[in-house]
Amino acid sequence: MLAALAGAAWSVRRGYVAVTVVGESMSPALLPGHRVLIRRGCRGLRPGRIAVIAAPDPDPARAWRGRGPAPRDPGAAAWNIKRVAAVAGDPMPPRVAGGGERVPPGHVVVIGDRPLSQDSKQYGPCPVDQVLGVVVRRL
Q: DSSP states of 86-133 as a string?
């Protein structure tokens, strides 16, 4: 199940976004209704961190391909929340769609904490221009 995000409020001046988790792909770490504070951009994007990314096209053949950068307004798109498994240059984790030996430049591999999460296992590495930000804390 894709973890969508709703109820976004943000401070443009400070570069933070507060979002409410909808869905269970990150449970037990994050449950539906939990609110998290996101730092916009890719600073701090590394394995183990939780990131908010633009939801991929439901067709795995398209995923994030052929898109421009994700909107910066949290209310303007559907978002997913996933754990970063690998960043550019890291060895490609097993079972990631598209395979390869290393994560390509400008991409991250994102995996939900629940085994049935829809993530890089189905859609391949996510371009970093599809990242809204990195979770800095639960509210």
A: EETTSBPPTT-TT--SBPPTTEEEEE-SSTT--SHHHH-PEEGGGEEE
**Whole-prediction pTM:** 0.85
Query: What are the pLDDT digits (tens) for 62-74?
Result: 888 878 888 777 7
96 vs 16, 69, 72, CA distance in Å?
A: 30, 22, 27
Nearest-angstrom CA–CA distance, 122 and 108: 14
- Which strands, in side-by-side order, build the sheet including 50-54? 4-11, 16-22, 35-40, 131-138, 50-54, 79-87, 107-111, 126-127
Report the candidate in 87, 88, 91, 78 with the shortest Cα–Cα distance to residue 118. 78
CATH architecture classification, 4-138:
Ribbon (2.10)
Token pair belonging to 114: 């629940």
Print burial letters for 86-119: b (CB count within 10 Å at least 16), e (below 16). bbeeeebeeebeeeeeebeeebbbbbbbbeebbb
pLDDT digits (tens, 9 = 90+) for 91-124: 999 999 988 899 999 999 999 999 999 999 999 9
